[in-house]
Design a protein that fits this description.
Elements: E1 3-12, E2 15-25, E3 30-34, H1 41-48, E4 56-61, H2 71-76, E5 79-82, H3 94-98, H4 108-126, H5 141-154, E6 159-163, H6 171-188, E7 191-195, H7 199-205, E8 208-213, E9 216-222, H8 228-236, E10 256-265, E11 269-272, E12 275-277, E13 281-285, H9 292-300, E14 307-312, E15 315-317, H10 322-327, E16 330-333, H11 337-341, H12 348-354, H13 357-360, H14 368-381, H15 398-410, E17 416-420, H16 428-443, E18 447-451, H17 455-461, E19 464-469, E20 472-478, H18 484-492
Bound molecules: adenosine-5'-triphosphate (ATP) and magnesium ion.
Length: about 500
């Protein structure tokens, strides 16, 4: 399906999300859409999918018609949108979600078994591994993302918009998805609009690229004309020389802020011994599912340990809750903003203020001015793109929501910060801002423990890296030993000369 974006504008109140954008998506093309957080990528995807209506201009599908006036109409015309923030029905099964709204008019039981049969066929065809009977709420984010993708594929769509489809997938799952996309484009002529912040994915899978900046169209052209550097500078409108700040590890005499001894919570992880010093940035590398997030949750008190001990500033901490952890100076930026981190229907300011009861609310009432100043300061330091800190979090772009989550915890003035996938969905300019911020925290003596699936990020930022595999700690690398290929091999369990050096 050929798409012509014809002079499209979209305003939200005073915010201009898109301004006179025009370009063509060729039929059967895998067309990348790149730009900073808030550049208008998701807005454009939603306009094409009939989820939003343009303020000006139109979208032309295969030379006919105007912009789809509703998602229903778009679906009928063969357009499917996999949104950045997943919108599945949490309490329904996987199969029911995939076929939602298209049930045949039969009694419940028959419908269920038909859905399941269709689902199994579809899943096997694309080589995904999901149980059609599982309740969506029980799935990891990665699996939920696959459900969304299967839903689009099940509609035999001729145009599929994938908005950040790989942000929660493992390298193998990403490869599988990319293979599916390529196959559909080649064999069935399906057209894809692919939005991603992963520059290397964009460069490998897309044949054509459109760059947006601040709601305007910068350029559209063949991927072959671009390199990672040219793409980044076109996106940002400036060169980005080095996205990682210089490493300044703490002195050997620096005190241990956080340590665990034999920490165990089966089956997620077992016998974890780690420590983080004041001023140190420590990473935990490993694949999705290796138990890294669970270790952070346990340290923060969100889950209880079965065995082992946790010490803060050298003193043992017994069974504790997240509230107690916050009083001990811990902060945790969780993995999923939609389900764990943010109140989407509240303002930026309210979200940031929520954890900051102690300092900002001396006598139980809100100190508006002081609070406002502080919140503004965090919004500015993260370069948040928002009309004001009173804006609802739901109105922000995905990456800017991530920044609110970050600001919310950092504003609490913690002495130990736990970060789980801190830059997921964040553009490369903002990433570099977050890296500088993390380095700044460490320079102020804060201990930082980071889990990230982007190995490059851990390698670029950390002073020391632990490696986990299948719930166990299998190695540790100091600053001069940190090497990306070797750590990847170790976390995959592929034997290489130096993996397992630390038992
Ligand atoms: N429903 C809405 N109400 C108000 N403003 C909105 C709404 N949706 C988007 N915006 C604004 O429009 C602009 C573009 O947002 P959009 O979500 O399209 O960005 P994006 O390029 O997808 O960014 P990201 O990479 O962070 O996902 C942003 O400034 C955003 O705050
Ligand atoms: Mg977006």
């Amino acid at each position: 399906m050929q798409i012509v974006v014809d002079d499209v504008s979209k305003h939200f109140g005073g915010t201009i999300a898109l301004q006179n954008v025009s370009f063509v998506v060729r039929s059967g093309s895998i067309h990348g859409l790149v730009g900073e957080n808030g550049a208008g990528k998701s807005t454009l995807g939603r306009l094409i999918g009939g989820i939003l209506q343009p303020s000006g201009g139109r979208v032309i599908y295969d030379g006919v018609g105007a912009t789809a006036s509703s998602p229903r109409e778009a679906i009928d015309r063969g357009i499917a949108v996999v949104q950045q923030e997943l919108v599945l029905c949490q309490e329904l099964t996987v199969a029911d979600n995939v076929y939602l709204g298209r049930e045949r008019a039969t009694l419940g039981f028959l419908r269920d078994s038909a859905n399941l049969r269709n689902f199994d066929e579809l899943r096997d065809q694309f080589g995904f591994h999901l149980d059609g009977r599982a309740i969506v709420a029980s799935l990891s984010i990665a699996d939920q993302q696959q459900v969304e993708i299967l839903k689009a594929l099940s509609r035999n769509a001729r145009l599929i918009v994938l908005d950040e489809p790989t942000s929660s997938l493992t390298p193998t799952e990403i490869e599988r998805l990319h293979a599916v996309v390529k196959r559909l484009a080649k064999d069935r002529g399906t057209t894809f609009i692919y939005v991603s912040h992963f520059i290397d994915h964009i460069l490998t899978i897309c044949d054509t690229l459109t760059i947006l900046r601040n709601g305007t169209h910068v350029q559209t052209g063949p991927t072959d004309d671009q390199s990672a550097e040219s793409l980044v500078s076109a996106m940002l409108g400036r060169e980005l020389s080095d996205i990682y700040p210089p490493k300044k590890p703490p002195s050997a005499a620096s005190a241990v802020k956080l340590s665990t001894h034999g920490l165990t919570r089966k089956p997620a992880f077992e016998d974890i011994n780690i420590h983080v010093k004041a001023g140190e940035i420590v990473g935990i590398a490993g694949l999705v599912g290796s138990g890294r997030t669970e270790v952070l949750r346990c340290i923060f008190g969100a889950d209880a340990s079965q065995r082992g001990a946790l010490a803060i500033d050298g003193s043992p901490v017994g069974r504790h809750s997240p509230i107690m952890a916050i009083h001990h100076g811990l902060a945790m930026v969780p993995e999923s903003r939609r389900t764990q981190g943010l109140f989407l229907d509240h303002s930026i300011a309210e979200n940031i203020a929520l954890v900051n009861f102690g300092e900002l609310r001396p006598f139980g009432f809100i100190n508006r001015t002081k609070e406002g100043e502080k919140i503004r300061k965090w919004a500015d330091s993260l370069n948040m793109k928002c009309p004001s800190t009173e804006a609802l979090v739901s109105s922000l772009s995905g990456g800017n929501q991530q920044k609110v989550l970050f600001a919310k915890w950092l504003a609490a003035n913690p002495s130990i910060v736990l970060l789980d996938e801190p830059t997921r969905g964040v553009d490369i300019g903002a990433k570099s801002e977050i890296y500088n911020l993390v380095a700044g925290l460490a320079e102020r003596g804060i201990a930082v423990l980071i889990v990230s699936s982007e190995l490059e990020e851990l390698v670029g930022l950390c002073h020391r890296i632990y490696i986990m595999r299948e719930g166990r700690l299998i190695g540790e690398r100091s600053l001069d030993e940190i090497e990306i290929g070797e750590i990847l091999h170790a976390s995959l369990g592929v034997s290489e000369s130096r993996s397992n050096s630390n038992g």
